[in-house]
Structure formats: C-alpha cells, structure tokens
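User: Hello! I'm new to structural biology and keep hearing that structure can be predicted from sequence alone. Could you demonstrate with Polysaccharide deacetylase family protein? Please show me the input and the output so I can see what each looks like.

Assistant: Of course. The first part below is the input, the amino acid sequence of Polysaccharide deacetylase family protein. The second part is the output, the predicted structure written as tokens.
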Amino acid sequence: MDKIYKCFPQGKFKVLTMSYDDGKIPDKRLIKIFNENGIKGTFHLNSGYMEKNDPAITYSYGKRIPKEEIKDLYEGHEVSCHTLTHPTIARCPMTQVIEQVLEDRKALEAIVGYPVRGLSYPNGSYNNEIENMLHHVGIEYSRIVGNSDNFELPRNYYEWKATCHHNHNLLKLADEFIALDKKQYMYMFYVWGHSYEFERDNNWELIEKFAKKIGKREDVWYATNIEIVDYLKVCDSLLFAADGSFVYNPSAASAWISVGDVVFEIPGGTQVALK
C-alpha cells in the first residue's frame, strides 16, 4: 500500500512564516526585505495607538505606521490583532480583554477590508480563560513568546510558539531548515520579533542575510500565519476512501497530498481517484 501524506501547496513539505509586533516605522524596511525575497509575514497591530505617537508611548521604540498607510504597506502580508492598547491582559477583567480584542479587530478590519482573525498576546500575557474566549470573538490563533527551537506544526493554535526570535540562533536554524529532506514530515520555520529591534540592536544585516539565504526557494511555501491555519484545516477536512483509492475535498480551497512519489492537487469540492 502506498503511503498517503498531506502536503503543503504544490506538494512541498516545508513552510516559512514570520510574525512581527507593534506596527512601528521600521516595519517599512522589514517588509521591503521580505518582498524582495518572496517572504510573507504577519504583523500584529495595536489600532488604539496608531494616532498616538506621544513621548509616553514612543520614548524608546519609535513611531507607529500611520493609519492611512497600513493597507498599502501590508498588502500581500497579514494584518493581525495585538489588542487595542497593549495591556497585560491576564491581569485585566475578562470584559476588558474582550473589548481590547474586539475593538482592535473592528478597527483593523475597517482599514484593511478583510476579516482579521489572528492575535499575538501583548507582553506575552494570557491564561486558559483568555484562550477559551478567543474563538467566540473570531480569533483563530494566537502567538505566545519564547522559542521552541524546532520546526513542528502547532498543536494548539492558541498557544502557538515560534521556532525562534530573530536574535536566537536565526542563521543556524535557517541552515538546519534548508537541510531538511525527509518528506514524510511537514516542517514549519516560524520567526518572531519586533522590527524596531533591528534599529535598537543595529543588526539589520541579520535579517537581510537570513532573507537572502532562505527566500525564493523552490522547496519552501511562504505563508502568513492565517494562511497556514486555513490550509491545515482544509487538509484535515479531506475524506479518504477506506482503501485509499480516492479522496473527497469538501472545502472550497485546494489541498495537496502525495501518494507514494506522486503529488495530487485535490481541488475544492471534488473527488479525485488516487489509483
């Protein structure tokens, strides 16, 4: 019996995604680097601070992207929530947490014109009660802080830990990721951080070298956080015949699988014979 494996689009087995918080002016330079190298990112924004570039907020981290520039700047990437005003939400009453997330969603959606369905926890703050609440307000994943140092897919979308912060073994992990060749696994390289840190640490060359090293590779799918979530849900919805002779895709989007050494695209709403 041939082994059937779920794949990323076009039959790939590796995905790269980037995740950056706060929406500060250095995002412009970071996005330029991403675009030049075919890399996609998710950018978590605090809509309540967009027009408030006062010293109390910007003292050491710089100004935020103006509201009128956001839609064009982040085109091709994902805009995601980071709460309205960046509180340490595990210390807040749940009514305020709900308002922080919902009002941020509403404001961001009014700017970008599509459903905003992701979050990164401000100050890395969360608890079980917050996790259990998020799907009720339309949030489908949230990133936590820290480094997993591995390339595993998320087991809990509401405790999504990245492979590494960009200041943590970034180039070493990039070399390890590039060298991966066991197609029986699906690998995800997830990098997080804040673009202003490149200004603060004077190390823009780090992300430039990383992007050139890992960008535009034929064996890597470049995706935003929500694209990964959506795609994996499509894969999980596939309905296989008991003997593996065919598969039905009830979703609207395509999924890709491999059967032995043959890659199949399973278009949305279709049944495909595998033998």
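User: So the tokens describe the shape?

Assistant: Right, they're a compact way of writing down the 3D structure. Reading them back into a model, for example: Residues 54-59 have pLDDT under 50 and may be disordered.
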